[in-house]
Specification:
Blueprint (H helix, E strand, L loop, with lengths): L30 H18 L3 H5 L6 H13 L17 H11 L4 H13 L1 H6 L2 H13 L4 E4 L15 E4 L5 E12 L6 E7 L5 E7 L5 E3 L13 E12 L3 E2 L5 H37 L1 E2 L2 E2 L4 H34 L9 H11 L1 H26 L9 H9 L9 H17 L5 H9 L18 H24 L4 H4 L3 H28 L4 H33 L2 H14 L7 H15 L5
């Protein structure tokens, strides 16, 4: 699929002035992608949702779940990311994300499906040998095998590199002897093939393909979870399991690359699923609000409800914008390689693209999972007491949403990674931030704004805000570098500072994504759509500006004192100024249109 944007490297959005032509937006889905969207949506509505209560209340009986997964396989969903030479569809990442979005309303089923075709199968797709792919991919696509990703351990948690699972060569050098226990493994009890991460005798991180039928493999009891109750989550135990040496993925010592590269993609896929779940949660809540009457009036007409609906819609729009902006960046970079899919070197370059956008993947995961929790929480509040009663959809949405802030690396881990990965890029010379920091520092004591867009231009206030966010970020990071110039290694231990900086970076990417998206589609929109865009941009920019401003303030208060602090706080007030005139009218307009169509308006 041609992506009509130029390649922007990972993290580069922080130091470049970007325009609407630099991003991909959902309104540019191809005919094939829209067909995929409709097909997946129809499948979920007709074949899965009718069984969702059976799936969630099965108490460890996964027969209905497996039946639905088999139907998904028959539809071709198991083949989305598989190379065509092995019978797969080999779709781009945007299509993969779109499919994940449209399955999300199915909760437990969606999690099982995503774990299988995502982090379960992708290690084999990206790192497997030809023989490994020929042996296992047909079984994985047909549903004969469901896959699982086995990284987390009982004592390692987020510290994945400290895992205890071990392998050693057998005396005849034909097998690796695998021992260890993996914790919280999605699809554990329905899987036929596990991708298992372990350490060799000399401490190398390795990945192996382990069949459920190998002697010594056992699965523990199902975890009694708060949400996604219909998916399988259990321990997987490996006791002197003999794994053929030809089942080693990649090379010993590459296990961490395999683990983390597929996690990057998994974070984007999870983010897109959060968008889908949030849309469904909003749709469900507004339908209820139109039916529920208090004081002889539908509650959708009350201002308190309208404000919730407007803010829910704005955060969904922001999340949707940044998710597909990121998938478009991936696909544009992969297309720029001009290498035939499946050819030698193709997957090496593809993995490099994944690595390059690791910052944006963590951003999308954190923002979208927290957006979904915000939407699900407000949806339940709209239901009132009924939302707390089992059997109503919003109760399931609320319970199911919470896991996303833990999946694919907790949000705390991802917040820690974002500035760390950024600094690594700067140190390697991959991100020329130094000159931009010096340029931004010139505005620290200046009373003149360099960035003020012509007010006659569309979204001029919001574009000025984006530019000022970036300037303030560069000023802040530059001053922090100065503060820690002789102790940069200690900065990694200042988690409170790093988390605040991370939230600033996340906010910048989100605001820029939604503003540029609105700008890009504005001229091809109707008058009503244009008014909706004007309103949603104002609401989202206002809400996110408040969050970014607070995060900036935390970073400054945690890092400086005295005159330096006063100067920085004064600059902050200048660079985060945003007057959202007619904000209340914008919120009411979005809420009323949402209630009118009983759906997300974009």
């Amino acid at each position: 699929m041609p992506i009509p944007i130029k390649v922007i490297n990972g993290g580069e959005f922080l130091i470049r002035d970007l325009s609407k032509d630099d991003i991909f937006v959902p309104e540019e889905f191809s005919i094939e992608q829209n067909l995929l969207k409709e097909t997946v949506e129809r499948f979920i509505n007709e074949e899965v949702i009718k069984d969702i209560e059976k799936i969630d209340n099965a108490n460890g009986d996964f027969s209905v779940l497996k039946k639905c997964l088999k139907k998904a396989s028959d539809l071709g969903l198991f083949a989305l990311g598989v190379p065509s030479e092995y019978g797969g569809l080999e779709l781009d990442l945007t299509s993969f994300a779109l499919a994940a979005e449209k399955t999300a309303k199915a909760g437990s089923f969606s999690v099982s499906l995503a774990a299988h075709i995502g982090i379960g199968m992708l290690p084999l797709v990206y790192y497997g040998t030809k023989n490994q792919k020929e042996k296992y991919l047909p079984k994985l696509m047909s549903g004969d095998f469901i896959s699982a990703y086995c990284l987390t351990e009982p004592l390692s948690g987020s510290d994945a590199l400290s895992l205890k699972a071990s392998i050693k060569l057998s005396g005849d050098n034909k097998y690796y002897i695998l021992n260890g226990t993996k914790q919280f493994i999605t699809n554990a009890n329905i899987s036929g093939l596990y991708t298992v991460f372990a350490k060799t005798e000399n401490g190398d991180f390795a990945a192996l393909l382990v069949e459920r039928g190998f002697s010594g493999v056992s699965v523990g009891g199902e975890e009694d979870k708060m949400g996604i109750k219909g998916s399988s989550t259990a321990q997987v135990i490996f006791d002197d399991v003999k794994v053929p040496v030809e089942n080693l993925l990649g090379k010993a010592g590459e296990g961490h690359k395999i683990a983390f590269s597929v996690l990057d993609e998994g974070r984007l896929i999870l983010a897109s699923a959060c968008v889908g779940a949030a849309k469904e949660s909003l749709k469900d809540a507004i339908k209820y609000a139109n039916q529920r009457k208090q004081f002889n009036t539908e509650i959708s007409k009350f201002g308190a409800i309208k404000e919730k609906v407007a803010e829910m819609s704005a955060m969904i729009f922001a999340s949707e914008s940044l998710v597909y902006r990121l998938s478009g960046l991936y696909d544009a970079k992969v297309l720029s390689f001009n290498i035939e899919k499946g050819s030698p070197g193709y997957y090496e370059k593809y993995r490099k693209a994944l690595e390059d956008y690791a910052i944006e993947c963590s951003i999308s995961k954190v923002f979208s999972s927290e957006m979904l929790d915000f939407v699900a929480d407000n949806a339940l509040q709209i239901y009132g007491g009924y939302g707390f009663i089992k059997g109503y959809s919003c109760e399931r949405f609320y319970r199911d949403s919470r896991i996303n802030r833990i999946f694919e690396g907790t949000n705390e881990i991802n917040r820690y990674l974002i500035p760390g990965m950024l600094l690594k890029k700067v140190k390697k010379g991959e991100l020329p931030m130094g000159p931009e920091i010096k340029k931004a520092a010139g505005f620290l004591l200046s009373s003149i704004f360099e960035y003020e867009y012509d007010e006659s231009l569309r979204f001029s206030d919001e574009k000025t805000l984006i530019k000022n966010f970036k300037t303030m970020f560069l000023i802040t990071i530059g001053k922090i570098f100065e503060e820690y110039i002789d102790k940069l290694d200690k900065l990694k231990d200042e988690e409170e500072i790093l988390f605040a900086l991370s939230d600033v970076i996340i906010g910048i990417f989100a605001v820029e994504s939604l503003v540029l998206r609105a700008d890009k589609i504005y001229d091809n929109s109707t008058g009503l759509k244009q008014k909706l865009l004007d309103s949603i941009v104002k609401i989202a920019a206002f809400e996110l500006n408040e969050k970014v401003s607070l995060s900036f303030k935390k970073a400054l208060l945690y890092s400086f004192s005295g005159d330096d602090l006063n100067i920085m706080l004064s600059s902050l007030r200048r660079f985060t100024k945003y007057i959202a005139s007619d904000l209340l009218a914008s919120k009411r307009f979005i809420a009323e249109k949402t209630a009118e169509i009983e759906n997300y308006v974009f």
